[in-house]
Amino acid sequence: MSTVIYRLVYYSRNHIPDQNGELDAEIKQILERSRVNNDKDGITGALLFNAGCFAQVLEGPLDAVERTFERIQQDERHGDVSLLALEPIAERAFGSWAMGFLGRSETNAHRFAEVGTKSGFDVARLSGDEIHSVLKRLAIEEEAAAA
Amino acid sequence: MNAAAIPIAARETPLPTSERILDGLAEPVVVVNADGEIVYANTAGEKTFGVWLVGRSLADLFPYYLHSGQAATVGRVSTLTTEDHTKYIARFEPMENGLCVVSLHAGGAANHEDGPACDELTGLATRNCFMRALDVALVERGDLGEIAVHCIDLDRFKLVNDTLGHAIGDALLKKVAERLAKACRKEDVVARIGGDEFVVLQCAPVREGEAERLANRLVDLLGRTYVLNGHTVNIGASVGLAYSGSGYQGRDVMRNADLALYEAKRAGRARFRCFEFGMDANLRERRELEIDLRRALALKQFELHYQPFLDLKSNRVIGFEALLRWHHPRRGNVPPLDFIPLAEETGLIVTIGEWVLRSACEAAANWPGDMVAAVNVSPLQFKSDTLLETVSSALERSGLPASRLEVEITEGALLDDTENVLATLHALRDLGVHISMDDFGTGYSSLAYLQKFPFSKIKLDRSFVAGTGADCDAILKAVAGLGTSLGMAITAEGVETDEQLNRIREERCTYVQGYLTGRPMTVDRIARFLENGQQRTEAAS
């Protein structure tokens, strides 16, 4: 009997001031930590963010997903965390832990303009599944780029 | 064992290193650093908990253990439980550089002088242990407000327990404990002192604003969504904060923090309040008011006044609304706004409401024709399950036909448990009682409620009648139109001038109630009022 895989999708406002490189440093640290923790916990999925928010898809066994989410909830840098979905899924959509660094580069802004928002990227407007497909496409692109 | 007892030969044999000796022990011994990370483990430790022990944290071995620098676990004995529920008696001995030796003995609960130091579920300190730590801290540095106590209550915890079961409730408490510990510093003491009550002792010099920041953080962190065993759970936390003061004992600070917590809850929960002098006076005053309120019914201090409402077509009085008055020998006339909320909070409204219903029915039974008594019923009365019985017995005893009783409810009654309330409303209607919606236009004014239940009457809030602007006119017109289409009568409340009366007449409201058409009066003045009114109507026609 294989373990049931759950998917958790959330987004949150980020509380990191975007000045003096503070945002870059914090985000670098968050990414690094999530990579290490998620590898250890068997979590796959994706994290994307911009200067305003984080959005994540976490896939894995329920207890690992819960543990990871709780870690996020205890992190003061995340505020107003909105849980968009928590459900069992037939299979993982992500083979590994992908992180879409979504800075303010024009390429990224352009990529997200496609999703439907005209100015900047507003995760709040996307439903859980749309985020998923956005993240998925991003992950594939990242994978392809890395290959 | 003293040296003299050791045989000479043994004394001359070189001793193995301390580490070898530790490895020879059958019981696990680990050393943790200030962050709770394991920096050393003996062989028994590695055998018991796995080879890669160093680098992991004590919380990895004992999921309920919280390294929050609890005074409870330093230099003390406590029971730790592994993920597979094996219990260890752990002895914590602090060493230099923030290190601490933890020796672990497999077995049941440790024995303590006054109960366990740790709450078994959450691993936090217990109340006794907390009070000891608080008293010690007060002696050491209690004078200058350098110690802060946060009393924390979870909002809606009971609901989680009742709907998702105790296992989820327990899991939630553990996560709450974790978040508390995470938000606090090592030198703070976190304790669980009741089912869903927690307390934090913030010692070390508390800098300006630091305690407020922590209280705020606790409200934020504990109020964030929890995911427990696949369930999404949302609760809130209210926090009461109090500082130490000169000559204070533990229980004084605790009482002040409790008072502040009470105020935080009263202010709407999910927030923190700082203790202020006067809070105890407020509470005392409320307590006294409650005592008086409990006696008021027996001492016959309540009285009903009746305000007439008129049919705008015939200009005739068709009924009276019963209004509760409280005359207190010392307080004088206590305004309903001052005591109704307290009556609702304490549940006293149910018995008071019953008295109102009975008295109004009895009074109305003596009124001529088919005049109606309108009685306000609190949302709390709907929750008490006895409303239907109370109404039918009030009607039966007084002999008043059900069609002459009108129950007035506010939207508030429909907010929670809508289905049950609707069922009660339908049952009342089946008795023949009229139901009206009071204070319409304030609050949510949900049109869905009007659709869900065929109210016989909508009472438009007085603010729309008193207002003179074009928007008030528009609202008046719209609600009157709504009433006509839905087949519900409209009462305009608070009519005080002829001009207002003309306006509502133009907008085709059905009934009018206000100072202009009759002030509230005592029951004995009704007969005369009706006589005079009769004469007025006859003279006018």
Read across the widest sheet of chain B, the strand sequence of neighbours is 13-14-16-17-18-19-20-21
The CATH architecture classification of chain A is 2-Layer Sandwich
Q: Major sheet of chain A: size, sense and barrel closure?
A: 5 strands, mixed
Number of strands of chain B: 21
Portion of residues in beta strands of chain A equals 25-35%
Protein name (chain A): BLUF domain-containing protein
Domain BLUF (chain A): 5-100
Organism (chain A): Pararhizobium mangrovi
GO molecular function (chain A): blue light photoreceptor activity; FAD binding
Report on this structure.
The complex is a heterodimer of chains A (147) and B (541). By secondary structure, chain A is an alpha+beta fold. Chain A has helices spanning 22-41, 62-73, 106-113, 128-146; strands spanning 5-14, 44-49, 53-61, 78-89, 97-101. The N and C termini of chain A lie far apart (34 Å). The relative contact order of chain A is 0.22. Residues 111-127 of chain A have low confidence and may be disordered. Chain B has 541 residues and is an alpha/beta fold. Chain B has three domains: 15-106, PAS domain (Beta-Lactamase); 127-276, Reverse transcriptase/Diguanylate cyclase domain (Alpha-Beta Plaits, 2-Layer Sandwich); 288-540, Alpha-Beta Barrel (TIM Barrel). In chain B, strands 13-14-16-17-18-19-20-21 form an eight-stranded mixed β-barrel, surrounded by four helices. In chain B, helix 6 (157-164) packs antiparallel against helix 7 (166-183) and helix 12 packs parallel to helix 14. Chain A: This is BLUF domain-containing protein.
